[in-house]
Amino acid sequence: MNSVKGRGAARLASAILASGLAIGGTVALAGPAAADEASQNQGGVTAMLGRITAGGGAVVQDRRKTGDVMAGLFEMKVDGGGTLQTYCIDILTNTVGGAKYKETGWSESSLHNNANAGKIRWILQHSYPQVNDLTALAKAAGADKLDANTAATGTQVAIWRYSDNVKVDAKSPAAEKLADYLTKSAENVEEPKASLSLTPPAVSGKSGQRIGPVTVHTNAGSVAVAPTGDAAARKVQVVDKAGKPLTSTANGGELYFDVPAGTPDGSASLKATAATKVPVGRAFIGDHTRTQTMILAGSSESTVSATATATWATKGAIPALTARKSCEKGGVEITADNKGDQPFTFELDGKKHTLRPGGSETTLVKVGEDQAYKITVTGPNGFSKTFSGILDCRTAETGTTGGSGATGGSGGPSASPSAPAGTTGGSTGSTTGGDLANTGSSSATPVIAGVAIALMVVGGGAVFLLRRKNTAGQ
């Protein structure tokens, strides 16, 4: 996927600039002042993008883009241990070397409105590397012979036809036969479940009570759970519904925070961890980085984790705040729950809200595609909770409105990513021309570093930059 350097650099630079955006408000909260950068990820795997381990050439001949691309299977290293194998589902977007990815559901990725998402998962289940009998796979596809490279190429090409709605053909005749076979045979299957998640990721209540429940969703046989930070010093325990202390649980388990009476108002967290294989077909999106969206093709036993937080007080408003990206609605949904005995008054996105005791309210904050956002809710006692990320809900070719964004050059595909984001390393060498995104290559890192320095100079200034993608033919 080879693109001109300026296009990927501009997109990533705009994302970084937009990260200065803050949507402020006030929150009435019983208890001491607090400041928190809250996680939106409900759990699962985080991993770093590696190189293409198997693949070959392909050609895009589409009304929007034309050129040679590298089609293949990526390797990713899991934080905490393990490896993943992934294919790309965003052909026109550059990868960023060293980018961190997080596991997510289809609703938070470009698959959210893709009627063929289930067919992509079928392809993953019925081709390489899930099917490693390449002789049998070649026979089914009507190909003379397949090896790892041609099998990976054909599989990626078939996936792109459904993920990006693009005309793409493998250069190898054997790989092309496999791609055609998979494309014609694919059937819609259901979305895979998360490897591990906790819902809701934030709860609240009065001290002297068990606060929860937080429900565990996992495909692992057993999940270890433990309080984190200073929870132990406060004698806060993780327990079941009956109040029995827990150190492990399983799918469907309900967790509670046992906060002793008289504990000073505050908050504590728990962490759940497990070792399991991530289900084939899970999506992976950049963690605070605009980069190609990936889809899981294979997993070793990997470390998965999730966290949840409880807030408590003796009286007053006791809120719990959570957030989730909604690609369908084009923004971030902020949910506030109030388990206190007084109304919870807060301001969000320029509007004032009052939530009754025991009430719950969800507010959608609109965010532009490819826009880095920072949504902050603040309160009168110095309370502050911030949710940040990048809304990446569309493939480049469907999310743009005209013009290729190309300015010349020859960004060619590469089997390994460029230097990690935030360094001054350049992109890997190019071998072909065209105007498609670089698979495993990005030329934007010097721009990223420069913009980061500029933001440091600006300091507390808030910057808003909304940039829409441009695609020819629309």
From TrEMBL:
Transmembrane segments: 447-466
Swiss-Prot/TrEMBL keywords: Membrane, Signal, Transmembrane, Transmembrane helix
UniProt GO MF annotations: phospholipase C activity
Domain Bacterial phospholipase C C-terminal: 323-389
Pfam families listed in its UniProt record: PLipase_C_C, TED
Region forming the signal peptide: 1-30
Disordered: region residues: 189-209, 398-438
Presence of keyword Transmembrane: yes
Gly residues bias locations: 400-412, 423-432
Record domain Thioester: where: 86-188
Compositional bias (Low complexity): 413-422
Gene Ontology terms: biological process: lipid catabolic process
The keyword Translocase belongs to this UniProt entry's keyword annotation: no
Protein name: TQXA domain-containing protein
Native organism: Streptomyces cinnamoneus (Streptoverticillium cinnamoneum)
